[in-house]
Amino acid sequence: MEFTKVRCPKFRIGRYKLNEYELRLLMLNIAEGSKEEFIGCKVTDCMSGESVTINPNGSLSGRLMGLDLMTDFSKRHMEIKNANHSFNN
What we know:
Elements lengths: L9 E4 L2 E4 H12 L10 E4 L5 E3 L11 H19 L6
Antiparallel strand pairs: 1-2, 1-3, 3-4
């Protein structure tokens, strides 16, 4: 059996290097009111070099290509599931 290899995105915040899950958890923590010291910090996508900042509500000031990867996989999977699912109303 063979699997497609995926290069997992990494993000840099200051001296920290985070994976996607860690970045999304940090965003949630900021939205919940903790980890406020990271508000306004620059987040850099290590693959594309793009940078954004973290807003006070935990969102990012712009899009990062690395965060789109898992979203695209999930969206495509849901589209396939919905196309193959019959609704009886």
